[in-house]
């Protein structure tokens, strides 16, 4: 269960990163509210998962999901550049997440 909670926390991190971009520096009310709400949910779920998962594992997985997810959202929805080097970088983050999961006792 902690891994599911941590994954959902990471998904909310993607939401707040995207909505923060859409808020134009917190100058647009709707996306700003979504950003703050998603941050609260994401941090809350991260804290919940950390009750039974190690700090380093939890934080790395949470930020990794957010980083790779924001990368994908940027490409798919915002038209950001795709290059072989950027794809390799994202793949290396995913490999790190898988290794961290495999090495975790919980």
UniProtKB/TrEMBL annotation:
Pfam families: Multi_Drug_Res. It is a multi-pass membrane protein. GO terms for biological process: xenobiotic detoxification by transmembrane export across the plasma membrane. Keywords: Cell membrane, Membrane, Transmembrane, Transmembrane helix, Transport. The chain crosses the membrane at residues 33-50, 59-79, 85-102. It is found in: Cell membrane. GO terms for molecular function: transmembrane transporter activity. It comes from the Bacteria. One of its GO terms (cellular component) is plasma membrane. Belongs to the drug/metabolite transporter (DMT) superfamily. Small multidrug resistance (SMR) (TC 2.A.7.1) family. Gdx/SugE subfamily. PANTHER family: GUANIDINIUM EXPORTER, SMR FAMILY PROTON-DEPENDENT DRUG EFFLUX TRANSPORTER SUGE. This is Guanidinium exporter. It comes from Thalassobaculum litoreum DSM 18839. The lineage of its organism: Bacteria, Pseudomonadati, Pseudomonadota, Alphaproteobacteria, Rhodospirillales.
